[in-house]
Amino acid sequence: MGLHQHPALDDPPTWYSNPISVLKRVIINTIFLDSDGFRANNDHGSIDYQKLAMAKVLIVDDHIVVRRGIVQILAESISGLMVRDVGDPAAALRLVWDETWDLLVLDVGLGGRSGLDLLSEIRGFRAKLPILVLTMYGEQQFAVRAIKAGADGYLLKSSSPEVLVDAVRKVLGGGKYISATLAERLAKPSEPSVLLEVVRGVLDAPS
What we know:
Layout: H1 12-15, H2 19-27, H3 49-53, E1 56-60, H4 64-77, E2 82-86, H5 89-98, E3 103-106, E4 109-110, E5 113-114, H6 115-123, E6 131-135, H7 139-149, E7 153-156, H8 161-172, H9 180-186, H10 192-204
Parallel strand pairs: 1-2, 1-3, 3-6, 6-7
Antiparallel strand pairs: 4-5
């Protein structure tokens, strides 16, 4: 469903007067997680699984055991997915610059450099690259900053493998992946433009 079919979103001052009602409206077709960390709607609908199987994914995490675990989970769950992992931020930056990727899975803590700083730099030359932040840090610490920096999703490493795969599929399909709790935080008066972008991403993404 295209954004042009949702005229309420074209005028933030009007619809934002009651942001919770907006959230309830969006949750019908959303990627928001419930309180247990599972998708309320697991129907991947129009996602092109043939294209998904040919996708290139780059995992950026400074812990090799974590990286290899993510690679194994994705390889076992999405047949044909091409996954590469790297731990050094500078090497990751070069790979994103030199090659075309369909998804970047990025940690927040990367040793000597912040993953959010790396995210902002990458957005400077790869504005449309889907980026999923996967971290041990709770939403109250970095989630809003990550979304504002251009992340398409924010997920905790404590999530189940099934939730990780679900998030990867959703972001690869052009959608957003955040929790309902984070969505409510973005609904605060200080973050209307951020919430608007998230809602637009949900409504324009494949259901």
